[in-house]
Amino acid sequence: MAKTTQSFxxxxxxxxxxxxxxxxxxxxxxxxxxxxxxxDALDKLKFQTLTQSDLxxxxxxxxxxxxxxxxxxxxxxxxxxxxxxxxxxxQFIGTIAKSxxxxxxxxxxxxxxxxxxxxxxxxxxxxxxxxADKVSLHTQKAGTNIGTLWESxxxxxxxxxxxxxAEGVGTTITLHLKKFDDAEEVQDFTNTxxxxxxxxxxxxxxxxxxxxxxxxxxxxxxTPDPTKKEYEFETANSQKALWLRSPxxxxxxxxxxxxxxISHDYNEPSKWIHYKAEGSQEFTGLLYVPTRRPWNYNTKDxxxxxxxxxxxxxIMENCKDLLPAYLRFMKGLVDSSDLSLNVSREMLQQDRxxxxxxxxxxxxxxxxxxxxxxxxxxxxEKFWTEFGVTLKEGIPMDHANQxxxxxxxxxxxxxxxxxxxLDEYVSRMKxxxxxxxxxxxxxxxxxQNSPYLERLKEKNFEVLLxxxxxxxxxxxxxxxxxxxxxxxxxxxGLDLDTEEEKQKKTExxxxxxxxxxxxxxxxxxxxxxxxxxxxxxxRLTETPACLVSGAHDLSAHMEKLMSQMGQAQGMSKRILExxxxxxxxxxxxxxxxxKQQTWTEILYNQALLTEGSxxxxxxxxxxxxxxxxxxx
Length: 632
Ligand code: ADP
Known about the structure:
- This protein is α+β, with helices and mostly antiparallel strands.
- Adenosine-5'-diphosphate binds near residues 125 and 171.
């Protein structure tokens, strides 16, 4: 391979521009990023040698070295990890592989407001350009003997060349440090004290030794020769896997730093759960609840799962077998003492021990949320606002834990602006109220003003207002809560009265039905294509008509969601309910047939609007209303 000059792709150029020109604070984090990459590279090498023991000599030294050179303004980060071959250098360093252009455009915007997101995007290496005006990366992949030298000044191009690497397998990053004005208050990254304190601050828990090169002090009585410097190495990190230390010895700052290391999220975590499980499976879990959603949450780029370690050896990150999708916001790791070191990804899925660990982890997380809900309601509500919609997916996904998850659900309701649990709802139920009522839809405001609430308001019955798409699946799979039925107020047969009230009303109902039978029959023929029945309503007080779904049919909102997902199953016909006490309906009794037909059509369209459905022919509807308005 001859030396070539290549251009960064457009995304990297934009990124470099942001790194060089917009990120002023926290310049020191570049060191954490580079050490983190080195640590990953050492993990990967170690993992590969589990199955390929001859990949490196048996006495291979797994370590990270940091070397400063104040005279030449250099800082080197050297590791003996897996290294990269020339293709990988181009692929990993020259492009942002993970992203589509569109996703990057979005990130670019976000970065302007929240520069801390940079770590999440897997652009750690580029943070070097915050402090260096030239960066070189010299690497050799394990199992090959080709050295690759990559260099760039961050100006839009880089060079790549084949250059043997004397140290063999591993990677050296050399930073040609920028000169900063004193006014910029940037630390001197060639000062070993500065570097040592940064390692302590950000990377103390790194599993591999971080060796810091220091000048040997002159021997007593000797005058040092400035042309012949002698060096020695000092291990700068304690190297103790944080999760294996006792929680009482770990400072909150250490937990937070470690979170940033594993999550690439620069926001502080909101909580951590650190525990040791004993019994059929021995493992240590360190689990974090983030404060905010990552920028790519719920896109296909979002990877989730816990990191898996076996006896301190890193096996893999984003292990999905350890975490169900409805807890995909959680970060953290599991270090097992029992799993066999030569597990493969494929084997993990069927591994019974892994299933046991996962069960344990899920229980622990759900118990944590229950505890937080009881003791730190405000904190829990913050969590809920960010991730509740994901946790709710547990109801349809994890039937075994349904009872635990249902206690964690929070809802908006007609009772107040506050969020409520189902238990709290039940405790507020009025005398004579049999069931838990809910309505689903797109917007809270629309639901709050929905005519479906009219009679319930009159009776002072509380209604849960559900606006997340997943609520349709939650209510489908949660027919009851502590032997109280969950009832949709947009379905037929809504039964709000007590036996006593019903008895009182029988007479009245009978006479209403008789009186309006000729009208409902006619309306039914006018709308024979649109609805399956027209009946007298008991749920309306102020609105003339509304549409309800059959008890076993999908709600209108669910049908809308299904059709948005391209899964429309043909609308099931609904039932039109009319309010016999409304003046419009009363008037209709006296109208000639042709007018009755027009009014029926208008009422039907209004009912569609009320439930949030589109009108089949809005122009025609509009004309009919205008005509009605001009008639005296
Ligand atoms: P991230 O580490 O978040 O993936 P980076 O831009 O820092 O993003 O690195 C991109 C990729 O380059 C890494 O995922 C890794 O594959 C490779 N890489 C970076 N540094 C090293 C290193 N010291 N040794 C081996 N590979 C590395």
